[in-house]
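Collaborator request, handled under Task 6.
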Amino acid sequence: MLAVLLLPGALRAFLPALIGRSALAMGGLALLLAVQDSTGSYTQAGFATAVFGIANVIAAPWRARAVDRFGQRIALTVMASGQASGFIALALVTEAEGTADIWFLVLSALIGLSSPPLGAAMRMIWASLTTAGDQRTKAFSIDAVCEELLFVAGPVVITAVIVASSPSTGLWLTAAAVFLGTAAMTSSASARALRGTGGGVARGDRPLRRPGFARVLIVLLGVGGVLGVAEIAAPAAAAHHDAVAASGWLLAAFAGGSALGGFLYGQLNLKAGIGKRLFALCAGMGFAAVLVSRLDTLGLFAAGLALVGLFLAPSLITGTSSPTPSFRNPAGRKRRHGSTPP
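C-alpha cells returned to the collaborator:
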C-alpha cells in the first residue's frame, strides 16, 4: 500500500498537505482555549467555536467552486492566507485588554470562511497520479488513515504547546501550519497541473436541487452538532478537573474512537439499506452522547468520548455514500479536471 507514496510527485504534495491539514486538527482547540483564556468564559468560547464551524460548513460549496474555477494554486493560497491572517489577528486580539466580544466572533467567522479544502484537493491530486482501481483505493486509504492520525495527534500537540507557552502561541503555530503547508503543496508540479476551468456550475448540478440530498444533509448536520459539542465539552471537562493539559488527550480519544469505528465499519458486509444504517448509527451516537454526559471522572469521560467517536466515522461514511443522484456524476459527463470531490 505504501508503494503509492513512491509515485513521481506524490510525497512532494502529500507531506505539505498533511502539514496544512494539521491546522484543522489543531485550530478548533487552539481557538477555544484562546478565547476562553481571554474572556474567562467557556460560553463565549463555545459561541466562537460554533461560529467557526458554521462558517466553515456554509462556505464549503463556494470554496470548492473557487478551486474549480481558479485552480488549486491560486484558490488554496488565497484561502490559506486569509485563514492564517485570521488566526494571527485572533492571537493579537486575545492578548489585548478590553477587547469587545464581537471581535472574537468576527475573527472566528473569518477563520471558518477561509478554511482551505486541502483534503479534497489532495484527493484530486491522488486521482491525477494514480490509475482507477486498486492503486487509487490504496492512495485514498493512506490519505484517510493519515488524516485520522492528524486528529489524534493534533489536539495533543496543540495542548502541549499552549500549556508550555500560551494560547496565543497555539494560534500562531496553527497559522504557520496552514500557510506554509498550503504554499508548499500548491507549489508542487502535481497541484499546478490541476488548472481551473474558468466556468460556473450548471443549474441542474446544484446538490440541493437533487432528490434526497436535503434529508441526508439534515442528518449529517446533527452528526456535526454532536462533533461540535464534544470538541467544546472535552476542554471544559478537563478545566473542571484542573487538568487543562488533558484536553488534547480527551479529543485524541474521541478521534481514535472515530478512526477505529471507520476501520471496523469498512470490514463489515452489511445488507441493510443506507437509510436504516444511518438511523441506527445516529441513534447509537445519540445514546452514547447522553451516556457520556453523565460521567464524572476524566478516565471514564475519555472512554465515553471514544464510544461516541466510534459512531462518528461510520455515520459520515454512510451519509456521504448515499446512492441518491446528488452523489453521482450526471450520466455521460466527465468530471472536470479541476473539480474538487467530496
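The cover message to the collaborator said: "The radius of gyration is 20 Å. Residues 323-342 have pLDDT under 50 and may be disordered. Please let us know whether this matches your experimental observations."
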